[in-house]
Amino acid sequence: MWFRNLTLFRFSSAIAKSLKSLESDLDKKRLRPCGPIELATRGFVSPYGRGETPLVHRVGKFALLTIGGEDKLLPSSVINDELAGRLQKIAEKTGKRIGARERKRLKEEVLTDLLPRAFIRLSKRNAYLDMENGWLVVDTASRKAAEDTVSQLREALGSFPATPVMAEEAPRTLMTDWLSSGKLPAGLRLGDECELRDPVEAGAVVRCRRQELETDEVREHLKSGKQVFQLALVFDERLSFTLGEDLVVRKLRFLDQIQDELGDNAKENAIAELDAVLALMTLELLRLFAKMEEWFGLPRPTERK
User: Fold this and answer.
1) The whole model's pTM is what?
2) Torsion on CA atoms 187, 1, 69, 6, rounded to nearest 10
3) Are the C-beta atoms of 280 and 257 separated by less than 8 Å?
4) pLDDT tens per residue across span 1-50
5) What are phi and psi of 87, to 5 degrees?
6) DSSP state, 50?
7) Which of 238, 253, 245 is nearest to 188 (CA)?
């Protein structure tokens, strides 16, 4: 259950106080199976697994939840082959060319006929709420998927004005300075990859992977005006990740020291393990977020519901 990517949102303390009925609110948006002619459905599932009932797992001030999805798999090639066959039969029967309106009607008919027989792909995405500090943390690097999570919460709760994190200090500028000067905040060191871009539109892009970053080659790129758009970092020798100029955390790894602290006792059963992982993970990330607030300035919203 360790999160691998982090897209961050913030919400006010007033909103946190309004989440007392979170479990019952999410129950109204529990994932239901796809209907015969539906392409997809979204809703909440239990963090313990699809067949379980509870929709929220709480550890202290943290609440873990899971967005589930069902998507019909219907390749366009299958649709087009079926459509072509029907068009050919009509053409042979009538001897007339099929117009655009009729083609559209036939395609909708093909979809209606094929959807009930399509395979279904199940998916899930974890997120957690930090009620005390106002963080919504979604385990994805996709902005679209993260926004979908927020939308699902808004539908279930009626209102949930969480906003993407907004930095007061430009991350791109700050990370470029870290890399060019080699002077990073205490507890932070460079990893082994970065992405440098010329900030002008359609400018040059340089990607370094598995490479020492404090080299003359990298410095020359910075001197030519390129800026850091992604930078691999290690925090307190406990977390490694790549931080983007959009403040999305990618390729997050919890290093050996944290894994050792988890121990074997937490693995007695699934719920005990989930408890232990969530407690350890959220506390480590809370330390990281506090430092990110310090480095970039990430104010918590103050508007009231």
Assistant:
1) 0.87
2) 0
3) no
4) 899 999 999 999 999 998 989 999 999 999 999 988 888 999 999 999 87
5) -65, -40
6) T
7) 238
